# Entry
Amino acid sequence: MPAAVDWRRVQLYAPIFFAIAYLVPAFINNFPLVYWDTGGYLIAGVDDDYVPNRSSFYAWFLEYAGDQSVWLIILIQSAIAAFLLSATVRTLAPQERWAPVLALTLGYFTSLPWYASWLMPDLFAGIAVLATIMLGFSAISNRAATVLVVLLIYSMVVHTSHFPLVVATLAGAGLSAIAFRCRLSWKLPLACIAVAVALTVLVNDALTGRPFFNRTGWVLLFARMAEGGFVQRVLDDHCSAERESEWSKLCPYRADIPQNAEQWLWKHGTPFWRIGDWEGTRVDSQRIVLIAIREYPLETAEFALRGFFQQLVKVELGEGTESQEWFLRWTVRAAFPEELQPWRQALQQQGKLLPIAQGMNATHIPIVLACIAFTVFGIFSPRLPRPLRAACLTMIIAFLANALVCGALSGPHDRYAVRLVWAMLGTGVPVAFFLIRPRRT
# Structure
């Protein structure tokens, strides 16, 4: 008779195998992937200084792990994602021994490897949601809870957009627990949010001498409002020739404000940079955004909802894999001087990686759409255990909240959804196993 399968070993070694397998995009590229924003994190780490809209926590991770090797950075990210995805599926479908292996295998053909291979904190959006669900609905050991707490706190402090995502996920978990009458352990996730906020404020205070949570939100909202033309309308209504500079320092430049957030914030020579960039425009940005909402409430709400719905359907791979050598060359040289030549010779910097990433949509899109469908179906299936149904509803609420935070307030981009959608494997695969397998007596 054939030897029995040792499932404990399989479930242990499968995440280890896929933690390496998920680095295939970096292996193909011959270097970890980078994005325009990577430069800000590298600067913050090299200078050990505050960089607006860039987390010092992720910058330090890049700096200290990168001192050993840039490959260590993405290996750590990949290992965290692989082990957490496996643990989530194993917890939600404890009797389905193949479920974690299948989830990890399917993950290989989604956005997960690409985001694990990226020198960016985006992967931690999905990690934050899975960690919140695990802490909320799973009966786990103290050791496992400690690991999840650390992961959840770190997942929030690496990017400010992860804070509202986790808050919405926890709120969704509360609604799900009520709807399906199942137990929710909410104290630890709530404590994680409080600790992450406190750490962010303390680090900002240490780096700038001023305690604050975030000072760039209003500037980002201003740029988003400019895309809808609301900023220009407010300035036209309130700036007069007699007191043009008195009402706002932006008044003299109202004809030069583009209806494109990327150009306003990142193109050199725009008024944004001439009048003080993030800090210099912060007060005026806040006032103009609030006036726009007050004077055009229905139009701004409709604009936000349009961004939200556009974001829901943006799930394609490819964004951010184009060459960025001209923009990042000097920051890579400053942070990883010995890695400059391999980085410049990578496929991404030669403009050859984008078609490969786009080709992966042939598998990525069908898999994530199937996982979304199974997760939605799981909400309404009475066959499923109540904790799994609650986890499904929580996951969908997190997906919707992510689209609202990113699409409505920042502008719809594929990478905002793709950073999270791989986490749907954590609920979609368990649901699929429960529905496919015959009823158990």
